[in-house]
Amino acid sequence: MIIEAKQFIKQNFSPFIKFLDEMFPNTKIVLTKLKSSKTAEELYAESILLFFISFSFFVIFLTTLLSAITLNQAFALLSSLFSAFIFSFLISFIYILSPSIQLKSRASKIEKELYFSLPIFSSFISDKTPLHISIKQFCETNKEYLLAQELEEINKMVEFGGVDLITAINRKILVSPSEKLANILTGLASILKGGGSVSEYMKIKSDEIINEYRQKIRESGRKIGLFFQIYIIAFVIGILLFLILTSVFSLISPIPNLLLIQFFIVCIAIPLLSIMMVILVKSFLP
Questions:
Q1: Can you say how many angstroms the Cα of residue 183 is from the centroid of all Cα atoms in its chain?
Q2: What are phi and psi of 132, to 5 degrees?
């Protein structure tokens, strides 16, 4: 039924699908990099179908809810139509952007892992050993790294696709989710074409990425230290002073609901602020 609905949308909403294709020109490239079997046209058709399904659901749900609350069916219907359109539009828009979000997430994971996986890969490189053999050895022994999964595709193209190593690397560059990895592979392909030392190139790249990681650790340490100072001064000391002063002033002049206010600060505000602090600190880690 869903397949038939998608076909119906493709046939009857083709001008709108073309409009979406012009609005999101990178979708085809993103889907290719994600190795998705889904085409851009199918993604747009699914987003339109999702719009109609969610619109119908929200109209029925909100109309029933608002009619029971306001007892005004006309107002409930108009409000539901407007709200349902907004919600359905946002859901469809997010669905269209979901491949790009997935690609950015994978690229981010690859680039974070490069700080550890690239030096390991560099240790497998030797000018005396063919590069595709070194890639194969690295992939077989370090399958937990995303870098190994990306390089495995190069190895498969060489072993089973019948292409040379430089062509395989160039093809991988075009579909690499990570720009940083694509730049490393571009330099690697240039070294191979020019007949330079691959091991020396990889050693330089490993040193660069290790230095970059050290720099990020130093920057993260400074930011975390600054936030801890703000947290201790503004929140911990500030809240303690507030509790002490309000307790003292309550002896002079009673403050309504003081215990409730203090309970809210101690049991709700402080834990929430602490959780936010942990999330902020985690976001600064390289």
A1: 20
A2: -65, -25
Q: Is 42 exposed, middle or buried (0-12, 13-18, 19+ CB in 10 A)?
A: middle
Angular region, 35: left φ>0, alpha ψ -120 to 50, beta rest: left
Tokens representing 221 are: 């340490």
- φ and ψ at 37, to 5 degrees? -80, -10
Burial of 134 (0-12, 13-18, 19+ CB in 10 A): buried
Closest CA to 150 of 117, 122, 195: 117
CB atoms under 10 Å from CB of 230, counted, come to 11
69: left (phi over 0), alpha (psi -120 to 50) or beta: alpha
Question: Among 38, 36, 39, 41, which residue's Cα sits nearest to residue 18?
Answer: 41
User: How do residues 108-132 score in pLDDT, each as one tens digit?
Assistant: 888 888 888 888 988 888 878 888 8
**In this predicted model, what pLDDT tens digit does every residue of 180-190 receive, in sequence order?**
989 999 998 89
Burial class (CB in 10 A: 0-12, 13-18, 19+), 81: middle
28 with 40: CB under 8 angstroms? yes
* First vs last C-alpha separation in the chain: 46
Buried b (16+ CB within 10 A) or exposed e, 94-123: ebbeebbebbeebbeebbebbbebbbebbe
Give how far Cα 31 sits from Cα of 2, 11, 21, 178, Å. 21, 22, 13, 14
Cβ partners under 8 Å of residue 233, min gap 6: none
Which pTM was predicted? 0.71
CA of 254: how far to CAs of 239, 240, 249, 260, 261, in Å? Answer: 20, 19, 7, 13, 13
Residues 6+ apart with CB under 8 A from 40: 21, 24, 27, 28, 31
